[in-house]
Design goal:
mainly alpha
């Protein structure tokens, strides 16, 4: 048989069929559980941040420091559990997003705690902190 100028014998065709069969078998037996593990990890990662995202949207007058401090340990645990599921070529950007999240959390709790609890959440500073914190969480969730 000639295919694209290459002459294939019956043995070559048999080898191609066997190789194709092995690839399909491998993807069905090894690939499917790996995809399921990744989907489960992504769902758990999103669930860890769901409460904070909901609070940020639905409670604009709730102090950001209170929202951020309450779930920070849960977020760090979710990041640690989800990190192995990030593809190697996305890992550097994921780590950058984690650093941005940590910086936004520090700004929300350290700088924002006194201002947020003493002053109104409607100040420009508090609104900017809220936007930065929300954007950092959205960047993290884009990997799930």
């Amino acid at each position: 048989m000639d295919a694209f100028g290459i002459t294939l014998t019956a043995f070559d065709m048999w080898l191609l069929a066997a190789t194709g069969g092995l690839i399909v078998w491998f993807l069905n037996t090894v690939g499917a559980p790996a995809v399921k593990r990744h989907r489960d990890a992504a769902a758990a990662f999103q669930l860890a941040f769901a409460n904070v995202v909901l609070n940020l949207r639905e409670n604009p007058n709730c102090p950001l420091a209170q929202i951020a401090q309450g779930a920070h340990l849960q977020h760090l645990a979710a990041i640690t559990k989800f990190r192995p599921f990030i593809h190697i070529w996305h890992r550097k950007n994921f780590e950058r997003s984690v650093d941005q999240y940590k910086n936004a959390h520090n700004a929300a709790t350290c700088q924002g705690s006194l201002l947020a609890l003493a002053a109104s959440e409607s100040t420009a500073f508090a609104q900017e902190n809220r936007k930065l914190y929300s954007a950092a969480i959205n960047r993290l969730l884009s990997y799930a």
